[in-house]
Predict the 3D structure of the following.
Amino acid sequence: MKDVLVVCPQQRDVRLAESGPLTARYRVRFAGPDLDVTDVSPEALLDELADLPADAVVGTKDRSALVAALLAERLRLPGPHPTAVVACQHKPTSRGIQQRVAPEATPRFALLDGSPPFPAPWFVKPVVGRLSQEARRVNNDAELQTVAERAGYRDGYAQIAGLAGLASGTVHGFLVEELVEGDEVTLEGYVHDGRVRTIGVTDSVKYPGTNSFQRFEYPSALSTDRLHELEELTALLVPAHGLDHCFFNAEFLVPATGPAKIVELNARIASQFSPLVQAVDGRSTYDALFALACGKDPAWMGSETRGVAISYVIRAFEDALVAAVPEPEENLEVLVRPGRRLSEQGANDSASFRLAIFTEWGKAREEAVARCAERVSSLRFQLESVEATPHR
């Protein structure tokens, strides 16, 4: 039985990785703090983790995936090279690679330094970041002047990425890109011994009039031709970034006409989608992740899908005091706690606050969406109004 070490886990990892079929085949250990909650010395963390028994090492968030790659390199275990992970996470580096291998699919971009070399409107995002934090549409030069960094993520990330050779100064600043319209989707897959394999494509649906994700629907409703286009793009992007022996997820914007545009490439599993894939395809992506980390080809085989599964995100668009939250339920992640303001807890985008995530399934897309609407109505969050204060 192989020892699989899940580093710096999130609560979702514990719930999904401790399922019966996985624990029957692997000794799963969880070690290290959630790095989105607690900052630690990466050198000390790696020293501590290196003393634990491990035949495989995985991490499921950006920083934990990089820690896992650094640890796997130290222990000479299968995994992506840390510099390849950083090449995905450092957006200017990744955009440069994308422009070289897939120019028609790469939006125009530049480091934010004065007026951009292409006309507004623009999309601005940090050169390193997570969960759409600080990423937003900017309509003119006046709005561009208001773009400013928030404290927190970058310095902690820089300490870890520095072990992979990234200069600390390069984690600061913003990337400004041409605004691209289209349906947002995510292709998830893995690469083993240089062979890129697709698991599936998930559609992203946003709250009307916002850039905040409302739900994720699997499998995608895109046409076969569009899905093939995304697979061909991914087959270019993954090896160009130097990725091997790892999971990845690639985000795209697909317009009604014209080529799909790359949003970003992530060198990790899309953990939020794992229950969706399990419900539709009958196999957990954590199962494939563990096999891959042990050096084996997960041998993911396409099969006839069963219905449609949805991951739904309940959000609030104004700060509030959390007075009460729903009781625990199956397939429900409550992301806030009573007694604190929304702005004081959780990871959020620049316009909203996440309250909870849940999953639903239906034989058809319409049935799954209807079940989500019913469940949203049944989940009671008690939020009390507070005097508005800046939370960015």
Summary: The mean pLDDT is 94. The chain has twelve helices and 17 strands.
